[in-house]
Design a protein that fits this description.
Elements: E1 3-4, H1 8-18, H2 22-28, H3 32-37, E2 42-43, H4 44-54, H5 88-110, H6 128-139, H7 152-165, E3 169-173, E4 175-176, E5 179-183, E6 191-194, E7 201-205, H8 210-225, E8 230-232, H9 243-256, H10 259-269, H11 275-283, H12 287-296, H13 302-322, H14 328-336, H15 338-349, H16 355-362, H17 366-374
Parallel strand pairs: 3-7
Antiparallel strand pairs: 1-2, 4-5, 6-7, 6-8
Helix pairs in contact: 6-9, 7-8, 8-9, 10-11, 11-12, 12-13, 15-16
Length: about 375
Amino acid sequence: MVRVPVQTELFRWALERSGRTEESARSKFPKFSEWLDGTRPATVRQLETFANWTRTPFGFLMLDSPPEDRLPIPDFRTTSGRTLRPSPDLLETVQAMQRRQEWMQEFLIEEGQEPLAFVGEANMKDSPKKIAESMRSALGLSKEWAKQEKRWSDALRSLRQAIEAAEIMVVINGVVANNTHRRLDVNEFRGFALVAPIAPLIFVNGQDAKCAQMFTLAHELAHLWIGAEGVSNLDRLQPVGAAVETFCNRVAAEFLVPIREFETEWQIVAMDQDRFDRLARTFKVSALVAARRALDLRYIDREEFFAFYDHQIQTSVELRKRSTGGDFWKTQGVRIGDMFGSAVAQAVWAGRLLYRDAYKLTGLHGKTFDNYIAGLGL
């Protein structure tokens, strides 16, 4: 039986980054104390189990010292100059999306795709109104596009589809790949944007309340317009850290709820008890987004907004708990994205992509993958 000595600090690093404790490790692995002090090193199989349990790449345990956990893209979650350590779930999600984007870029270039002119066309010296107008124009949306929808949830779906039609990849997922045991922490991040002239990508944390996802989607869209990729975390729809986050919030707000139209409607509903619901029905955004716009324009104070926000999120959480679960295939549609899924299907059928590689890119395998691409209706 082969035993492999591992540096004590590597065990502790793996536990810390995964949110595990030494106590839980001793409960899971009875000989863990002996691993730590080196009196009886773990076997290869035991180390593999430990690596899986802590979500640590096995090879990292063979290093002389812990590697530095760094996101491969800018981290806009920083506060007071302090960079937050990314979890293994966030790291793996960003890396997986980068692999998707890299493959998609190669596919589109072979198809003759031209660079998207709107990516990085703006900067933070431009007005949010100007950028919001450019975003609507590129997506083929009128200023009152959402009012044509019956519900804000329909508007969210239409917005996602319009973004993908503009050759921007959109992924909404609340777990790592398809692993329902590894839920993404909404308190860690709400979304991120990967900027590129071909196949730019927006990721929205699906664990966030549905009523907040539209704002995150618009926020990350603004990141593409100013060419600033990175990970975002909106604390109760408020930006955390960098100035770029505040700016993208302003653009997102103007994109979803234009200021002039909002001010006109506010005069009508200001004294009503259900004013945010009425605004939501008018603009086809969630009541939460309507309340946030009122806060932006100082029609309500932060105390009122945060009380409303907490109530809305709690309601959303309770509804999710009572839910019997969504349709598996519809879920895959937003986890993979129509644009990316269709490209993978075409590449497989044309013999340009091995099934093995398609499985890795989509997180689907065997008959599940076959049924997914058959359902795309291509």
